[in-house]
Every structure is written in structure tokens, then in C-alpha cells.
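Methods — Computational structure assignment.
A single polypeptide chain was analysed. Its primary sequence is given first, followed by the predicted tertiary structure written as C-alpha cells.
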Amino acid sequence: MERSEPRFTHQISLPTVIGWRPGFRLSVAVPAILIVVSMAFVASEIVAGQLRQAATESALQNVEAIVRVYVDPTVSEQDLDLGTAPDPQIDAQLTSLIATGDIRRINIWSRDGRVVYSTEAELRGRRFSIGDELATAFGGQSVTSYEAETEDPEPGQEPPTALTLEVYVPIRGSVDGNPFGVYEVYEDAGPIEDRVRAAKGDVFLVAMAAASGLLALLWLAFGGSARLLSLQNRRLREQAAHEQVLTSNIRQSEERFKSLVRNASDGIMIARADGTVAYESPGVERVLGHSPEARIGRPAFELVHHDDLPAVEKLFGEVAATADTEAVAEYRARHADGSYRVIEAVAKNLIADRAIEGVVVNYRDVTERRSLEQQLRHQAFHDALTGLPNRALFLNRLEHGLARTRRGAPPLAVVFVDLDDFKAVNDSLGHGAGDELLVTLAGRIRLSVREADTPARMGGDEFAVLLEDASSVEAARDSAARILEALRLPVRLHDRYVAVRASVGIAMYASSEQTAEELLRNADISMYSAKAQGKDRLVVYESSVHDAAIGRLQLRADLQVSLERQELTLVYQPIVDLETSEMVGVEALLRWQHPRRGLIGPAEFVPIAEESGLITPIGRWVLEEACLRATTWQGARGGRGFDLSVNLSGRQIEDPGIVDDVRRALEQSGLEAQRLTLEITESVLMHDVDATIITLQRLRDLGVRLAIDDFGTGYSSLSYLRRLPVDILKIDRSFVAGVDAGPDAAALVKSIVSLGQSLRLETVAEGIEEPGQLAALRSLGTTFGQGYLFARPLDPDDVTALIERAPATHAASR
């Protein structure tokens, strides 16, 4: 709907002569008077229209000059976008322009019919229909219109005065010149119309006088014309004075612009077509530390870094060759202090502009921003703790390496490193010490490889190394061996030395179809194979390794449901008193009756259970089942003592609920606590001695007995052994195997027995298979023993039968 825009019409009423009667005989005089009056009226109307048009054009020029000087520099196309917040400085500038009094209102329209900025606060942000004048202005043509008060104006469009001159000036874009907005300026037309009416009346009187003078005196007509010319001259003088005021305002605006340039933080340079500096703003001193005066006449790019200079000169040549061309560049420029700063510059060709006659370069210092971006990129592709490349960067380099290998470059290999038992360091010394250890080991890995190779931290305690030019498996193995040897060196942490071991997997490039993820997975599989083979070693990937890994995964999946399917069973190996050969107890041993593979020994599936965490529920079941059986056997012995030994894994010792699990097994079975012996391997005890001692003491407070299993294979010292709340030392079968080979072979067993006696600990020898071993152990004073010489592991029913056949002469007391 278009706005109602009433047009101003100049109305004149002929004076009515009182007493005028048609009966007068004025048949000649009346037509003559009417002709004179009509001619005078027409002449006055013509002159009034011309004066009104001249005043309108003058007002249009004045308004265009004002908005171009005062408003255009602050308004951009983005300021009129729908989603952009209005700039209060623009409204403030408009308000200052109406302070003179001639201009009553200024609106700035966007193309969607919104009044974005206005001197009237209630109009800002409102949307109106676009009338013919606005449409013409949006088409690129300035237009004016008179508007008088109406009885029913559109809300928000009431003229500020009874008679208003509306001026519509398009706002053109700086690039293509197309209008993106319109200035709507309301100027009070009352003074203009008053002057027009006065001139119109004067002309009418003059015309009347002239007509009368033609009848009487001709000189009266010339006198009227002189008065009219005098009036026009006065108006011209007034217009000249007004233009002088505008010129003064323009000069003030120019001074303001110069002040802004002088105080701008960015630098502005005007370079001539020959590449010399015609102008340099004071911003050069803030950006690069150089005096602007010293730069005049110098080569424009003499401060550019020599590596960046060719590209900058080429870009400048391209800009200078085409008028109004604009380009963006980034380069390094020398500061007055000798350092180089990263500069972002925008160059525009204004050589054709007579006020510029050069290429304008606006530039700023972005050194800090670029430095921050580089830090962020480094953090995105490097491990924050060790500084090594992370998994993302490693895979990226591996993919590039594979691409080079497919094009004929030497083959490559991936080494995957996982620290063995790293959790024990975190648990015993804290995560801070664990981080310190990772940093140290990362440095060792970095020093163990060639400069062309890529070491990376994959996460946690896992590392990987990309070996470039791995010509053979032997070469890759040698590189991995160097890494392994470097990691084995003790590390000093918190006034103690920590022995580090690692499992290493190697995967060689095999075919052009191999992907980076596949090669890394193969190295990972080899690493887990090294762990399964006893840790602290390296394994090269082969198809058999992959098959074994798949088998382990399947075995792990089957193990997860083994308890539900009641596939796990217990067998029991008798423990005898070596002096009397009487069975005094049994050790519970876990077996898995697999539905497809048959009976599986613990050496194959217990490591998988420990890795997956299944050992905790399995161990809980072993405790409950074995204690129930032991209670039955104790009753079969007529109340005489009968001991049960159960192995605890490292995961169970670390489990906060282990004490509750043991207490529950004792309560449910009714087994006396002193008849239960819990066995922990020496290596498990040494992981986190302080925490382990606390757990062992809580277990011992229940009344159970504690044994160190496989004693002599670990690294426990006498000082640690004195602190451990244990009752029994179990001598590892590797020492028992050669105990009857002579004094030298028996010396180690003798020292263990002597150590136990000095600490008042019982000793149990494992793996007794020969009578000579039994005799030697008896002579050394070993208390108890177990092994195939006495019995193989037995089913529960066989144990019951063995108890029933045993002589009931006396009870063994331990």
C-alpha cells in the first residue's frame, strides 16, 4: 500500500470588490481589467513556479552536500543489514545536523522498507511501505516533494511542519555504486513558500502596475522589474552566504579526517606507480617504529623480508596495472628494532584519483594473532605433556609416508610401544610422578630414533614411532631394540629409581593396499602379543600374530560368559608336611572347561582376565567356592585342622572391595579365618608397596594367613620383606628343580629357608617331583611342600577320598 502523499497546491482567490454590480456599463472596462488581471495572475504563477523550482533544486544540492560530507563516511552497507545492530553514532550525527533548524527530520531507509536510523527515536527500526519517491531514490535518482498536513496521515509519517519539503537522496555502495539505502530529509518549506508568496504578490502587483502603466505610464513597468531583480539578487547573495557556510563545514570535516588518520593505530601508505612512498601516515611509527617523514620518497617495500619480497612486488605490480583493483597480502616487515613483524595489508589502486594518484596500502601488525594461531595448531597436533606429535599428526605423517612408498620410496615400518605395569607407578608415586616418567621416556624415545623418523604419544602410556626407510625387518628390529634398551635404564623419581619395562610391536609395510590404520593396528596387535609372551620384549607382526590376537579376542569374549555357563572349575593340589608326609591342606587352582577347546590352563586365560578386569568377579567366585569345599573337608577330618590356599591377582589386591569379598566368603562358608591362606606373587607386592601393605594388613586383621608366592623371582628387598605382614614364603619351582644337584644349586633355597626362619616365616616348596628334591628340602629345613611327587591337582571328590584314606593319628598344626 502506497503512502498518501498530498501535493501542495498554491491557491489564490480573486478579490471580490464590494459593491461591484453587473449593471454598470463597463462592457469595455471589465474585459480589459480581466485581461490585465489574468495576465498579471499568470505571470505571477509562472514566476512563483520558477522560484519554487530554483529553491527546491538549491535545497536538494544543499542536502546532498550535507549528507555526503557528514553522514556518508559513517554509513556502510553492513549498517543497514537486517541482522546488524544499529550504530548509535549515526543517530547522534543525524541529530546534530537538525540542530541548525532548517532541517527538521532525517531518516535513513533500507531497501526492505525499514527506517534504520532517524532523528525521531520512535521511527527507528519501523517498517513502512515504499512510496514513489523512495522507489525513485532506490533507483539511483535524487527526488524532492512538497508535503502538507493531511487529516489522516499514515502512523509515523506525519510531516514535522505544516508545509514540508521532502528530499530523497540515494546512498550508493563504494564498490559498484548501486544504492543500498536512501536519505529522507524533511526541511521546513514554510520560509520558502513565504518568499514565493511574497514574490508572487509582488509580481502580481508589478504585472498590474505594468498593465496599468501601459495604459498610463510605461516607466511604472520598468520600476516593477527593477524591484523583482533586486529581490532575486538578494536571494542569490543569501544563497552564496549559505554555500560559504557549507564550504567551511567541509574544511572542518577534512581536518577531522586528517586527525583520524594521524591517530589511527593502523598504517596508511600511498605508493606511487614507480614503487616509491608518496605518503606515510603516523601509524607507521606505531606499527613498525619508523618515522613517517623518513619514509617519503623511499622504496615502498624496502622493509619487506627478502623471502616475501618477490611475491609482494608481483602483487603490487598487478594492482598498479589496473584501476580500482584491490588485493590483500600478508608478509613480514622489519621493525626499527631489527625484529620482523607479520603484516596484513590491503592495497587499492587509486592512481586515477587526482586527489590520491597512487596505490593506497592499509596495513596492520598481526604478529600476535599469527603466533597464537601457530600455538593452537601446534597444540592440535602435539601432546601437551611430552611435546611429541599426537595420534592425529602421526596418522597424517603415516599416510603421507605410505603415499611416498607407493610411488617407489623405500618401505617404512611402525613401532608400537606400551609401558608395562605403568599403573603401578601412578598408584605408588602419584600421577605427577607418572607424568614425569612419561616425559623422561618420551625424551629417550626421541633420542633413540633418527631425525627422519616420527615418534608420537598415542595416549596414556602408549607411544608409536614411524620408521622411514625401513629397508628390512632386521633394520626395524634394530631400531625397536634401541628404543627398548633406552627405556630399560632406571629412572630416578622422587629420590628413588624406577625400573621401566615395555612391550614393543613392529609392523612392516606389506602392500600398496595397506592403510595407515591397518598398519598401526598390526603394530598394536604385535605389541599385545609381546605382552602375552611375558612383556619386556618386541614382536614383529606376522599373520600368525594376527591369528593369535583374533584368538585372544574370541577367548576374551568366551571368558565373559564362562561364569554364567558354569564353565570354570577348581582343582586342588595337596600341600604336605615334609617331615611327616601328611596332607595338611590344598591349594585351589583354577581351570576352564571350554565348550569347544576343552580344558584350558590358567596360564592362557588368566592374563586375559586380568587385562579385561574379569579377574575380579572370577576371583570372588574362586574364594567362595574354595571356602565352601574346605569347610566340607575340615568336617571330614573330624574337626582336625585343614588349610586352604587361594591365589589373589594384582587386580584383586588393587580392588577396594577385596577385604569385603574375603570376609563374605568366610561368613558364607563358615570356614575358620586362620585356615585360609591368601597367596600373592612377589612381583605384585612390589608394584605399590605402601598401598599393598595397607591392604594386606586389613586382610590379616580378618585372621587369614598371607603367603608370598613364587618367592625369589621378584625384586623384594629384606627391608620390604620385614614390613610385609606375611606368614609364609613359597619357594618358586625354578629353584626347587635343581636343589638336589649339589651344594651350589641348593645354596639359594637354603638362603630362602634361613631367611624365613630368621623372620619366623613358614616355607613351602613348590614343584617337588623327585625323591632327591624332597630329601634335599628336608635337610634344608623346609617346612611344607607340594608337587607331582605327592599328587597332581585333584578334583574335589578325589580330595575327599584322599582325606578319608589318610591316617587319623594326629592333626597337623601350622
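Note: Residues 660 and 766 are 29 Å apart (CA to CA).
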